[in-house]
Amino acid sequence: MKNSKTYSTNTTNTGANVWNCGPFAMRFQTGFNCEFSSPTGVVTKSIYQQYNTSTNTYVGVKIPILSQDIYVNNAPVCFGSYEPFTSGDIKSLDNLGLGIYTQQQLDEIKASDPRLYEQLQNGQYHIITKQTDSGFTDQKVIYKD
Disulfide-capable partner of 130 in 10, 18, 36, 88 (CB 3.0 to 4.6 Å)? Predict the structure, then answer.
């Protein structure tokens, strides 16, 4: 089972918001004849069979001896976390078509500094690339007046 992750730069540009989503393991108790449904189809299990699944979507459960209703869990919940930027660089140049630029390496302190943009030189284009330890990369091209 591999989690899926979605990254987005946080509003202060100091790191990345990470959304960790399924698949999540689901286990159901034996003891009833059950029908399990999901977007991929229906599986019928007897009272002696265990149904375990790994899914990113809902699973519907019907227990015919109790009711013909299908009970559906919600889609798995994602949880968020924060990863600071830990490295990167800034390439500064007068003209985007120009091949001559100055490059500054960013350490963990500089990469996660919320005032980094304020400290850039005016009248230049800046290509700012930042990375987190997990490999997320954010790149912005700005012109500072």
Answer: 88
Confidence of residue 72 (pLDDT cuts 50, 70, 90): confident
pLDDT digits (tens, 9 = 90+) for 46-67: 666 666 666 556 677 788 888 8
Q: How far apart are CA 124 and CA 93, in angstroms?
A: 6
| Cα 4 to Cα 56: distance, rounded to the nearest angstrom | 9
Q: What does pTM read for this prediction?
A: 0.61
C-alpha closest to that of 117 among 142, 84, 89: 142
pLDDT in the model for residue 1: 46
Please confirm whether the linkage preceding 114 is cis (ω < 30° from 0).
no
CB-side neighbour CA atoms (13 Å) of 62? 12
Which are the contacts of 115, defined by CB distance < 8 A and separation ≥ 6? none
Place of tokens 């304020």: 118
Question: Do the Cβ atoms of 34 and 51 come closer than 8 Å?
Answer: yes
